[in-house]
Design the sequence.
RNA sequence: GGUGAGAUAGUCAAGUGGCCAACGACGGUGGACUGUAAAUCCGCUCCCUAUGGGUUCAGAGGUUCGACUCCUCUUCUCACCA
């Protein structure tokens, strides 16, 4: 039982620091029912969670299954600095109202995976604001610049002469201080967070709180392109609030290679089951597309329902395999005769009439499934189904 | 505080007085091929009913028939020195 739990916890992890301590905590839970805390920090600026975040959330949920209290930390104070691993050093500060809204939106999303009874949502401004100047100063004395520069991205930026703000040095310290305040037993995060996560251990030691958190790092999930990490700004993400149809379609669009990565990090199938699928595809007895469909169904069902996942698959087959129209299309209307290029812009199928004209020239535009050749075409009154490329549709009613 | 270098389209990056709406790469997008995958090939990629017109090369002025290119100031970035 204990061994099995440990194996599940280790699944897919990139690195675990102080694994023995995790074993002890779990043993104490199994033997005496003792609970422990697992911390994970999130940025309040991006309340739209995507599958990359759920890799962490699923791991947290697993810990909950084995006796953990999750400290879901919203870094409302640290967000004012901006994590140095991100691109922009300076970020706009969020108002209290915005943060509250974002937090609410977080809660709606995370409890699709986490158990609300075993989750405590906390904000780090609560204790960091109490630190004061002297508290902040004593925090900075626990570390030095040379060691700070060991951090990979600082190192690179320093060597290549890209600016580093002093406030960015503060960021890891504050994140580590969160672990001191919360007395976390374990902290989990992405591999890109390694430095910050270790800072938690360092500061817990420096502040002598009597324990040093274990650190569990998950790999960064690649986005739909299969290369860069999944993120909203790169627009290669699958949001947990995506509509079932979108979610299903996006999952099917990943490459075969990436599919295994997603299986490992997102599926609840056991590693043995996944190995069977992998062998099946390798020896040709299984079609990669159907294996991918299973994954897409599983994930879509997790955030919606089995039924809507099924429906999404049917819809998908309908549009793409059978070349039919989707069952729900945005509808627009306009008064009087309209020029086709203008109509495409109005229906949001093209960003400008220039682009619309280019699309027409290239044969990308269809009306009622018929290719349009004449870019001067005027639409008389009636109802039309406009299409650009393979996946953009709109219905237009000309009155 | 001083000295020097730099700021070009979504990103990187050419362009040093007219041939510039600006080479190229990446990204994005359309087409072919497919399993709406990947790989590959081809087209498009500032705006505008358009063999033409408009607005662009950090910002503001100036020189010139003409400026992304020259001059001045401003803002920002980096390097070296203090």
Sequence:
């Amino acid at each position: 039982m204990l061994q099995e739990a440990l194996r599940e916890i280790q699944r897919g992890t990139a690195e675990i620091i102080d694994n023995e301590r995790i074993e002890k905590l779990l043993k104490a839970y199994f033997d005496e029912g003792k609970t422990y805390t697992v911390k994970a920090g999130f940025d309040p600026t991006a309340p739209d969670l995507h599958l990359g975040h759920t890799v962490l959330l699923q791991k947290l949920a697993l810990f909950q299954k084995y006796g953990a209290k999750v400290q879901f930390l919203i870094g409302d104070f640290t967000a004012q600095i901006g994590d140095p691993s991100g691109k922009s050093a300076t970020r706009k500060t969020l108002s209290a109202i915005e943060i509250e809204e974002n937090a609410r939106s977080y809660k709606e999303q995370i409890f699709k995976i986490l158990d609300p009874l075993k989750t405590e949502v906390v904000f780090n401004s609560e204790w960091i604001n109490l630190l004061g100047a002297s508290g902040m100063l004593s925090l900075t004395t626990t570390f030095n610049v040379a060691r700070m520069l060991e951090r990979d991205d600082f190192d690179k930026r320093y060597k290549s002469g890209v600016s580093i703000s002093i406030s960015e040095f503060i960021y890891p310290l504050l994140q580590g201080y969160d672990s001191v305040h919360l007395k976390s037993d374990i902290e989990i995060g992405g591999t890109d967070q390694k430095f910050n996560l270790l800072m938690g251990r360092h500061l817990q030691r420096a502040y002598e709180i009597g324990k040093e958190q274990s650190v569990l790092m998950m790999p960064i999930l690649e986005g739909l392109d299969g290369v860069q990490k999944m993120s909203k700004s790169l627009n290669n993400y699958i949001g947990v609030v995506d509509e079932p149809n979108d979610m299903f379609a996006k999952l099917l669009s990943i490459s075969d290679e990436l599919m295994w990565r997603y299986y490992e990090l997102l599926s609840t199938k056991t590693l043995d089951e996944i190995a069977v699928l992998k062998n099946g595809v390798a020896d040709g007895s299984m079609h990669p597309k159907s294996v991918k469909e299973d994954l897409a169904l599983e994930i879509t069902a997790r955030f919606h329902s089995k039924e809507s996942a099924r429906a999404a698959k049917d819809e998908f087959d309908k549009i793409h395999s059978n070349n039919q129209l989707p069952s729900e299309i945005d509808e627009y209307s306009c008064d009087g005769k309209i020029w086709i290029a203008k109509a495409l812009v109005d229906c949001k199928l093209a960003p400008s009439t220039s682009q619309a004209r280019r699309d027409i020239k290239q044969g990308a535009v269809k009306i009622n499934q018929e290719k349009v050749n004449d870019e001067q075409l005027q639409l008389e009154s009636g109802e039309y189904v406009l299409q650009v490329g393979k996946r953009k549709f709109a219905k237009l009613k000309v009155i």
In short: Residues 86-91 of chain A have pLDDT under 50 and may be disordered. The domain at 244-321 of chain A is CATH 1.10.240 (Tyrosyl-Transfer RNA Synthetase).
